[in-house]
Structure formats: C-alpha cells, structure tokens
Amino acid sequence: MKFSPSRLSLQLGLSMVAAGFALGVCTSAQAQWKWRDTNNRVQYSDLPPPSTVPESAILQRPVGARRSGPQFAPAAPSAPAAAEAASGPARTSDPELEAKRKKAEQDQAAARKADEDKNNAAKAENCTRAKSYLKSIEDGMRMARTNANGEREVFDDKIRAEEGKRARDIIATDCK
Predict the structure, then answer these.
(1) φ and ψ at 89, to 5 degrees?
(2) Which of 21, 48, 87, 97 is the most buried (most CB within 10 A)?
(3) Residue 34's beta-bridge partner residues?
(4) How many Cα atoms sit within 13 Å of 173 on the Cβ side?
(5) Where does the chain have alpha helices with state H?
C-alpha cells in the first residue's frame, strides 16, 4: 500500500494528538501523594497522608502541594493583608472594568425593578378580580362551578361562604 504525502501528514497529525492526550493523562496521574504507612507499606492517594505519618515517611508529593494540619499550617497573614481581605474585594483602577461592573449592577437593579413591577401588577389584577368575585357572591347571583367529577354544582349557602372566605383572603393578601 502506497502512502500519499497528505495521508502521511494526516496520520502523523493524529499520532501527535494521541501522544498529547496520553501525556495529559499521565501528568494528572503524577499529582498524587506517596508515603509509607506504619506497616511499612507504600500508600498512594490524591489526598495528603494522615497527620500521624511523619514527614520522613512521605516519598512523593504533588508539585507545590503542602500538607495540612496544625504542625504544617501556613503562617498567619500580616496585618495589612488581613485588613485588605476583610475589607472585601479590591476595586480596580481600570475605568473600563469599573464601567462594566457599574453597568452590570444597573442592569441587575433594573431587572429587579421590572420583576417587582410585574409582581405588583399581578397583585393589583388579582385584587380587582377578587373584589369583583366577592361582590358577585355577596349580591346573591346564581353561580355554579364544575366539581372534580365534571358535574355542575350550583352554589348553595355553604359553597358561597367558602368562596367568600377565599375571596376575602385573596383581598387581604393582594390589596395592600
């Protein structure tokens, strides 16, 4: 079988991609801790060894990894660094970034205001409907509803009282 130059370059490119993938998989496997336990067996983990394992028993650690625990705790930050961390996120002096942040805050405030207006309009509509329904019930109009079985029920005194109470509850919550 004869290989053309384009086919050879395609195969070379695919093998390079496969090699890159294999290298990426291998590097993640190296980010592990390795130590000898009390029984002198080698242990592997992606978590640091327990604090009972002495520092001399640790055989391998991930690059830049530090062991946690009271004897390995990082030093406390200096007073200015602690004050800066307590004051919240630092503001940048980049005017473009500040403008974007301010615009995002304004957009969020406008969205909250729009939601609030929409909810208030829905409450006003519910209030108007509940008042009209209550007036119809109290005026003694002949009314009916369909029950769960699909049958028509004409309002009697008991149903009128229940519906009147429900309408008053809606008015109490939405008509403020």
Answers:
(1) -70, 140
(2) 48
(3) 44, 60
(4) 10
(5) 5-29, 79-86, 95-138, 157-174
How many CA atoms lie within 13 Å of 24's alpha carbon, on the beta-carbon side? 6
3 state DSSP class of 52: coil
| C-alpha of 40 from chain center | 44
- What order do you get walking across the sheet with 33-36 strand by strand? 42-45, 33-36, 58-60
The CA distance from 42 to 19, in Å, is 30
Q: What is the pLDDT along the chain (176 residues), one digit of tens a residue?
A: 555 556 667 777 777 777 766 666 555 555 588 889 888 899 888 888 888 888 888 888 887 777 665 444 444 455 555 555 555 455 557 888 889 999 999 999 999 999 999 999 998 998 999 999 999 988 988 899 898 999 999 999 999 999 999 999 999 988 87
Distance CA 98, CA 101 (A): 5
CB 60 within 8 A of CB 30: no
Backbone dihedral angles phi then psi of residue 144, each to the nearest 5 degrees: -145, 160
Nearest to 34 by CA among 48, 24, 23: 48
Three-state DSSP state, 44: strand
Apex 120 CA angle, 123 and 102, nearest 5: 155
Tokens (6 digits) for 174 = 């939405």
